[in-house]
Amino acid sequence: MESVIERIERGHFWKFHGGIHPPEQKFLTNDKPIRHLPLPKQLIIPVRQHIGNGGELLIAVGDKVLKGQPLTQNSAPMTLPVHAPTSGTITDIKDSVVAHPSGLSELCVFITPDGEDRWRERQVCDDFHELSRQEIVKKIAQAGIAGMGGAGFPTHIKVNNKPEINYLIINAAECEPYITADDLLIREHSEAIVDGIKILDHLLLPAFILIGIEDNKPEAIEALRQATKNYDKVKLCVIPTKYPAGGEKQLIKVLTGQEVPSGILPISLGIVMQNIATCFAIAEAVLNDTPLIRRVVTVSGRALSKPRNVWALLGTPVEYLLEQCGYQAGKRRHLIMGGPMMGFSLPSTQVPIVKITNCLLAPEESEIPADNKEVECIRCGQCAEVCPSQLLPQELQWSAKAKDYPQLQKLNLFDCIDCGACAYVCPSQIPLVQYYRVAKAEIRQLQVQELKAEKAKDRFEARKARLEREKKAREEKHKKAAEARRAAMNKPTEEGQSAKSAVAAALARVKAKKAQTASKADEVSTNTNGEDVSSQGQEQTQDPKAEQKSQVAAAIARAKAKKQAARAKAEQEPETLKDDEQEQVLTQAPEKVEELGQTDVPVDTDNGQSPEAQSSEEQSPEDKPSDKKQKIAAAIARAKAKKLNAQKNAESAPENQDENAPGNLDQQPTEEAKLEDDAVAPVQATEPAETSAPGKQDKIQAAVAKAKEKARAKAKAKAEAKNAPEAEPEVANQDSEAQETAGSAATESTELEDVTAADSEQSPQEQKAQRIAAAVAKAKAKAKAKAKAKAGARAQEQQHLESE
């Protein structure tokens, strides 16, 4: 069987399926040399000009840049940097319309040239063999070189493969009409192109190097033959002109006879393909340290007065190139980036030139077909006959209109190279390629979303597994700790006992906390003021004084309830008490006072309020009475109760008894003095033994004796006034006597206070005893005043009865 190289040497090549022969129209530009243009006023450089993501910006607005200076840097394997095509100033960084069929906007860097065209420092390499393989690949990557045939795949990834390569194919076919950029580049820079081929040979080490070029480029064919005549490894393959022979799979079929299966890359077959312009860019990057900042662009079309190939800086606006080639806009002028078969219409003349731009087409009105509306497919089958990928274009169009994406994938939509041959021969004027491009974009978007969803699912599953592991680890740790505690508690040592006590204490604290919480909840639930429970609990936690007031109010309420119960019981039972019961009450007064001071709030029998409540009305919350004052008040209250019982016993005596008799009058002060003595005795009994100091006790006894003498004198005077013949003046003077009695009581209180003040420099125990004596004196004075008022009222009533 004849080998591939033998067939190539004999000029026998294979044929691919389909294909067409459109008018070439290459004569418009293939007879003029490549022109160098002056610097434009502004350059618009898209950050992403290849397949993959854009790099990270290295510059900011206002920065000065030099020619060849990188504007971005590689951040991932599929990223490429872009460089400043000339020296100038960064005037803006924003989104702008880029070269894309949809007219979308992407991030772009705006540079205003300074006209100096100053280069950055470069390192020229005369012999690339002095560089290692890694250094060459790094130079290609840093130069930002991507496939310049139209795909835009990063070149440094394509040349960094280690599998055995059988064929390195250099694509110089340039099969699309109007385009002559590669043709002119080969003619003028064939030596540099061959240097690039040698660098690729050094990196890939292929068995054979095949240069495929169509036979409609005789001058370029001759230039390559002369440049490679001493390079035996290179085979120049002149193939028949047929569109689209420049397609990757089609050219591989023509040169090697191998079919590239669907979804398989040529590298899997041991084949690598590079464009002729890419080889020139590789030589410039490795040998001259020149990044990819310019390329040859064919500016053609009958709407131009001077169509030709030009060296265009990347980022040059389309409008500037058209002006340099004599473009005159018309009413229906269309601008196409790329060739007439695979190109797309431009939405604006401000679209910049990028790395994959090889042609700019400005046709005349006669070259543009009429805007005939598409009609229904007649199923002629011509599209399937000319499809170089052996697809079914009509079925693809139906599924694309129906958005049946699974069916499109079954029909191998992504094998379509968008050559446009099907649309070219369609009698129904159906723009088949546009349907395919839209469907591809939508499917890619769905795939990206599915990929993101899968990644999110994987992250969720990984997080869930991690949480489960952490939970099991915590449980195991707690289990081991519990076992260690139990083992420590079971040991008959001090450590074991301390561990048990610690556990018991912790349980007790938890139970106490739960009980406290439950009690607070019960108190809140029994609130009848109509307030919000949550706000009430917040107030309790935030205001301790309010909580204290509520407790005092609750104690006062309980005291009032006890008082009412005592009154009801007193009305039903005899009101007299025996002498031995009175003595028992007074004897138990100290213990009752102590108990009352520890538990409930004492109640004053005169007004039905506790001393705390009375003092809280007269004083601020900070000046509440102490426990000592409560004990004193309790003793005074019991003395008053005993006195009232005695008065009730006197009233229950026979009415014919002469209450104004001298003996009785003499006896009344004696009983009052006895009550006073009985009231003082329990109070003194509650004090510690230290309060019975000689000096202090004498002063207290003297004050008490003085108060008793005054009380007896006033009682006798009152009795003599009652025996006088005129009773009415006596009644009239009762109020004055009561006032005098109150005044005397106040005087006695003042005297007691003076005694206390005089002893302020004494010990706290002495001051305490003096305060007790003063309180007792005040209580006695008040009791005497009330007794005198009641006696006067009875005398007045008796005189009134006698007069009747």
Automatic annotation (TrEMBL):
It is found in: Cell inner membrane. Binds 2 [4Fe-4S] clusters per subunit. Residues 609-618 have a biased composition (Low complexity). Residues 367-397, 407-436 form the 4Fe-4S ferredoxin-type domain. One of its GO terms (cellular component) is plasma membrane. The keyword Mitochondrion does not apply. Its EC number is 7.-.-.-. Its cofactor is [4Fe-4S] cluster. The complex is composed of six subunits: RnfA, RnfB, RnfC, RnfD, RnfE and RnfG. This is Ion-translocating oxidoreductase complex subunit C. It comes from Thalassomonas actiniarum.
